[in-house]
Structures are given as structure tokens and as C-alpha cells.
Amino acid sequence: MLFYFKPTAAGIDWETQAAIEWLDKNIGKKCWADLGRETGVRSNEQNNALHLGLSMIAKSLNDAGLDMKKVLKPEVDIPWTTDSVKEYLWRPVQKVMTGKKSTTELNKTNEIDEVWEVLMRHLGEKHELEFIPFPSKMNQNV
């Protein structure tokens, strides 16, 4: 029998009454569970590629003299980092396009690519930043 659940800070939030009933019937008995992450979310490889790409954007912005002051805040010189690109450029586009707050919620199929394309188009049009292809096995030598 396979049970679906969502871990929470308070414990496990079971999604089906059948799971709760089964657990009640088996209190004190030796049981086992097959646990895994729900499919459809990005893979570790996609996560690594996303962070590599964000790092590439940060370097490209810094190399072009487009510090955070020029792009976001005119009062302070702040160089870009992978985390600042993720928080101030990537995440706002992601939220509008997908309604998802965390990059961990993005699906494997196309959401990362779609957000990447929109972000790179914006940076190219507004700040004349050269397009950076999303990191992949096919363009590892970049």
C-alpha cells in the first residue's frame, strides 16, 4: 500500500482518510514505507544548472558595469551575486509567470526555460546584456 503525505513542521499532513485508518489499525506493529519525492518538480541536475545560470547572469551584469544600483537601486553600488540575481531578478519573473514562490516548485518540463527566456530578453532589451544560453549538457563548454 502506498501513502501520499506532505511533511509539515507539526508532523505529517496525511492526505487520505484511508491512510489514517490504516495507521490506526497497525499501531505497535512493524511496518515499512516507501518514501520518495513527488515527480514533476525539477531534478538536482536542473537545480545545479539553474544556479550555474544565475551565477553566469551575475558575472555578465557585473562585467557590463550593471551593478544592482544601475538595475535596481540607484543609491548604492552593490555587485551582483548568484543569490541576488535569484532574489531580485529571477524570483519576481517566476512568481508572475508561474505563481510559484520557490524554485523548488518549478516543474521539469518547461517552466525554468520559459522564465529564463523572459529574464534574458528583458536584460537584453533594457540593459543590452548579451543573451546567455541556459546551462545544459549541450553547451557545457560555455
Describe this structure as you would to a colleague.
The protein is mainly alpha-helical and 142 residues long. The protein folds into two domains: 36 residues, no CATH class; 96 residues, no CATH class. Helices cover 47% and strands 6% of the residues. The chain has five helices and two strands. The chain has a two-stranded antiparallel sheet. The chain is elongated. The mean pLDDT is 79.
Give the end-to-end Cα distance, rounded to a whole number of Å: 47 Å
- Share of helical residues: 40-55%
Total number of distinct structural domains: 2
Instruction: Summarize the main sheet.
Output: 2 strands, antiparallel
Work out the number of β strands. 2
- Shape designation: elongated
Tell me what portion of residues adopts beta-strand conformation: 5-15%
The poorly predicted ranges are none
H-E order:
EEHHHHH
**Which whole number gives the mean pLDDT?**
79
By secondary-structure content and strand pairing, the structural class works out as mainly alpha
Biggest sheet, spatial arrangement of strands: 1-2
The total count of helices amounts to 5
Task: Determine Rg (CA atoms, Å).
Answer: 21 Å
Q: Which labels suit this protein?
A:
142 residues, mainly alpha, two-stranded antiparallel sheet
Which helices and strands occur, and which strands form pairs?
Blueprint: E1 5-8, E2 11-14, H1 17-25, H2 44-63, H3 68-71, H4 82-98, H5 111-127
Antiparallel strand pairs: 1-2
